[in-house]
Amino acid sequence: MSEPIAAPAPPSPPVARRRRRRGRRPELGMGQVNINSLLDVLSVIVVFLMKSYSADTVQVKPSPELQVPFSHAAEPAEQSTAITITQHAILVDDQAVLQLQDGHVAASERQGDGMTLKALRDWLQREVAQQKKIAALNKQAPFRGIATLIADRRVPYPLLTQVMYTAGQAEYGTFKFAALHAER
Known about the structure:
Layout: H1 13-23, H2 35-52, E1 70-71, E2 81-85, E3 89-92, E4 95-99, E5 110-111, E6 116-117, H3 118-137, E7 146-151, H4 157-169, E8 174-177, E9 180-181
Parallel strand pairs: 1-9, 2-7, 7-8
Antiparallel strand pairs: 2-3, 3-4, 5-6
Helix pairs in contact: 3-4
């Protein structure tokens, strides 16, 4: 006859402990959170933020009262303070600073020689102070005094010069004009 089959040797104590631990799963208590759910939510938030982030430094938001002129120039936009001039308002970085009546500034808003727009100057000076604080803390982001003008094509020239003069009073020395790229 055949020989009896010997029973396998009992596993060593560490292997037996591992087998027992695999069989039982710790239950989550009230104070514990499943990390997998948190990672799912976090990944959805990261994807949403990546889609909503724009790499373009100057954003022109379309509106009926802002018709930006066209240009054939293809110079990329730089990081700067955006000053938007429409027929009804002057905005700095999308914040309304000064209201206009049909493209003209009220006499009460002008100061000194009539070229300085008080509310705009005060706002831009605060912006310059903030950018200089950032430059003091971060040497890779120096204050360069660049303002990008996004103006409606129907804005009167005297208003444009008043805005540029006022920005110059607030230490902005370089002006760039935003225009939509026209195909040739």
